[in-house]
Amino acid sequence: MAKEPQISRFEASLPTEMLARVERAAAIQGRTLADFVVAAAPEAACRAIAEADLVRVAVAVADQQRIAEALVNAPACAPALEQAFRRRCELFDP
Hints:
Shape: flat
Order of helices and strands: HHHH
Distance between the termini: 68 Å
Radius of gyration: 23 Å
């Protein structure tokens, strides 16, 4: 027989505008406010943890020095990349 998961409750206060935005998003997905928040929270938590773990990977001093060296002594851009950047500037930054 499977053990029932423990359930905990929490309460949050939101600025009125933020609550309206979350309620709108829930309505768009056809969910209740609680269901929307419960469904969104695990994904947001995983993303925050993953981002924190990525930052920690480069914390070692040797890694920081390698990253700085790569930025300071970056190889020259390929001519095709420079051409693409110029074209982008012409199209989007007239």
